[in-house]
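Below: protein 1.
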Amino acid sequence: MKLRDVPLLLCAWAIATSAVAQDTGTLAKIRKDGVVTLGVRESSVPFSYYDDQQKVVGYSADLCGIVVNAIKDRLHMPNLTVKEMPTTSQNRLPLIINGTVDLECGSTTNNTDREKQVAFSDTTFVIGTRLLVARNSGIKDFPDLASKTVVTTAGTTSEKILREMNYKNNMHMNVISAKDHAESFLTLQSGRAAAFMMDDALLYGQLAKSSDASAYEVVGKPQSYEAYGLVMRKDDPEFKALVDQTLVATMKSGEAAKLYDRWFMKPIPPKGINLNFPMTAEVKDHFANPNDKPYQ
C-alpha cells in the first residue's frame, strides 16, 4: 500500500462509518419499516383514550399526531403507516425499551428513576396527585383514609406514593391496585374502595365519562406535582431533538394552548362533559420555557 492511498482509505472508512451512524436510531427504524408505532392508552381521559367510535383521541394523542407529521416531513414519507398499540401503566416502558413502541402518547410522569430507563420529551403537562371520593364519604384529605380501602392504578407513581404513605404513617389502609384508570374508578363506584388516588387531571377525566359525575368530587392536598412527557428510547438524540423541536414550536405558536383549551375547557367525547380544568401556572411556565426536567 502506498502512503498516498492512506487518506483515501480513511475517507472511505469515514463515509462508511457515517452511513452506518445514519442508519441507526428510531428514525432509521421507522424509515426501514415504513411504520411508526405509537403507544396509546385506553382510558387516560383526556390525554389518550378510546371515544365511542373506538378511536384514540385526547390531548397527548393530538400532540403525538403533530410529531408524526414532523416525522413524515423529516423522512419524506407522507404515506408513513401509523400503528397504535394499546399500553398499560405496567407495560408502557418495557414496550419502549424493547423497541416495540417508538413513542408513548399517554399520561406518563417523568421522574429520575424512569429517566434511567427511557427518555422524555419536554414537559407537556403538570399534575398534582389527589383523591376522587363520593361526595357523601366524609373524606376531605389524605389523613381521612386511615383504616379505609383505597384504590389506585398499578404501575403508577400514585401507587408508590400511597404505599409509602401507608407504611410511614401507619395508616392501616387496604391499598388495592387496578389494571387501569377505568377499573380503578369502577372499584370506587361499586363501593369496593372509599377513595381513588391518581393524578388530578385523570380523576377529572374519569368523571367526564361517568353518568353520575355529580356524585363525586376531587379532594385532598396534592401529595406530589409531576411532569408528563412523551416517552421514547434512551440514547437517541436525533429522535429526541425532532420530538422536542416539534413540541417547542407547538407551544411557542400557541397551538398547544389551543389543544389544552379543547381538551380541558370544552365538552369532550364521549359524554360531552367539560372538565373545566383551567391551565395552571406550572403548565403556563412550561409552555413559555420548555424543558424536560422532572419534579422528582
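Below: protein 2.
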Amino acid sequence: MPAAHLYDAVRTPFGRFRGALAGVRPDDLAAGTLSELLRRSPGLDPAAVDDVVLGNANGAGEDNRNVGRMAPLLAGFPVTVPGTTVNRLCGSSLDAAMIASREIESGDARVVVAGGVESMSRAPWVLPKPDGPFPAGDVTAVSTTLGWRLVNPRMPREWTVSLGESNEQLAERFGIGRERQDEFAAGSHHRAAAAWDAGHHDAWVVQVPGTDLTRDEGIRPTTSVRELAGLTPAFRPGGTITAGNASPLSDGASALLIAAEDAADVVGRDPLARIAGRGTAALEPQSFGYAPVGAAERALRRAGIGWSDVGAVELNEAFAVQSLACIDAWGVDPAVVNRWGGAVALGHPLGASGGRVLGTLAAVLRATGERWGVAAICIGVGQGLAVVLENLDTTARTSGNAA
C-alpha cells in the first residue's frame, strides 16, 4: 500500500470576527491558498491533481454550492480537476487531509489537495422555512456562525447545551480551575507572539490579496493572567470560561498538498512528512472537548508508536479547559504542546483549523528535528480526530529538542 506524504502546507493569517478578513468571501479565501500552493510548486502541473478535498463547517452562505469545487475553479485549476467539500465541523480540514491520505493509500489518487476554509464573519442568518405561505406569526432569524441551530426537539437536552456550558462541565469533571485556564491562555498568546517574532510562520502563512493582514489578528502579546482574571465568565454565573481563555470567532483558510511517496517527480519537491497514523473517536456530544484523547491514542497505535516517542503535539485550543484535560489524560510534557501558540491566540476558523494544526506540526517537526508528532482536534457533537506525522528530514532525532 503506497504511503501518503505531506509535501507542503499554506494558510492565511487568521482574522478576528468582523476584522481584517471580514470583507473577503470564503470561496475567495480558499482560492487564494490553493493558488499559493500551486505557485510554490511550479513543477506541478495542476492537471495532475487527482482530487481536491476542502473542509467547511458552515456551507449556509457564500461557501455553499460545494466550496471544494468552486475554490479550485476560482484558483485557476483545470475544469477536469474534481473537488468535494467535507463537513466534520471543527475537524473538517483535518478530516479532508485524512480522506486525501486514504485516497493515496488506496491507489485511487497520487496527488490530492486538501484543506479548508471558514468565514465566521460572513456566516449568514437563516430563517426556518414556514409550513405554508405567509405565516401569521413572527419568525426568528438564526445565526449560523457557531453552535447549535434549528435543533431537533427529539435530541436529549443534555446533548445540546452550548459549547461553553459543555466545557464548564469538563472543568467540573476534571477539577480544572479558572486560574489554570487563564495561565494556559496567557501562555498561548505569549508563545504565538514569540513564534511570529522568530519568523516561524513566515515560510507558510500567505497574505490574502486586497488585505493588509500579515499576522494572526487575535494575538495579544502583553496578555497577563491578571488581566484575564478580570474578565466575566461567559457561559455560567461564577463559571471558569471567559472570552479570554476560549478561542475566538475567526476567518481564514488552509491548504495542504498530499501525495504518494513516489510522486516527488510529479509534485516537483520533496515531501515534509509521512502521514503515519489516523484516529477518529466519538463520545457524548456534551463531552466533545475530551474526544481528542481517544482519537490520538488510536492514531498512535496505528502508527506503531507510543507517547514516549512523540516530540511535538499540535492540539487545537477550542477552550483552554479542554486542552488541559487532553494534555493531562495523555500524560505528555506540556512543553511539547503548541510550541508556537494555539487557537486561543491564533484563532479558530472552524473549517480551516485542522489544516492549520497539521501544517504547523510539520513545520515544528522540521524546526526541532523531532521525528514524531501528533495533530489533534476536538469537534462539536462529541467527536475528535488525530493524525500522526513522521518527520522525513534526515537530521530528525528521536530525543527532545524544544524550539
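The domain at 4-121+248-391 is CATH 3.40.47.10 (Peroxisomal Thiolase; Chain A, domain 1).
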